[in-house]
Design a protein that fits this description.
Helices cover about 80% and strands about 0% of the residues. The radius of gyration is 17 Å and the shape is elongated.
Length: about 110
């Protein structure tokens, strides 16, 4: 498996989480059945997932671009930096970094 595919898979998951958290709320608010409109904690969680998904998706695509550059480098040391282990670390770092950021800076 190529590390770039792991970044694209993470970007797809983050985009899907963002899309469903925002879309479900919009659909349910039209039916007046949105539990987030009555529950403040659920509303904040929904907004948190939406923002985290949007932000992390962009950075996963950036990481995939950088990983692809590392893979095509003529320098052997750079090519060795592209690995599944490093891709997993970068994905977790992005989620941790932006998860912490969005929890400290509420919407």
């Amino acid at each position: 498996q190529v590390p770039t595919t792991r970044y694209f898979l993470a970007a797809s998951g983050a985009s899907l989480a963002s899309l469903t958290s925002g879309l479900v709320a919009r659909m349910m608010s039209g039916w007046a059945a949105d539990p987030a409109s009555h529950n403040r904690a659920l509303c904040k969680f929904q907004a948190y997932v939406n923002k985290l998904g949007q932000t992390s998706c962009s950075y996963f695509l950036l990481a995939a671009t950088l990983d692809r550059w590392l893979q095509s480098s003529q320098n052997r040391r750079y090519r060795r930096m592209s690995s599944l282990k490093n891709a997993t670390r970068v994905i977790l770092l992005i989620l941790l970094l932006f998860g912490t950021y969005h929890s400290m800076h509420p919407i």
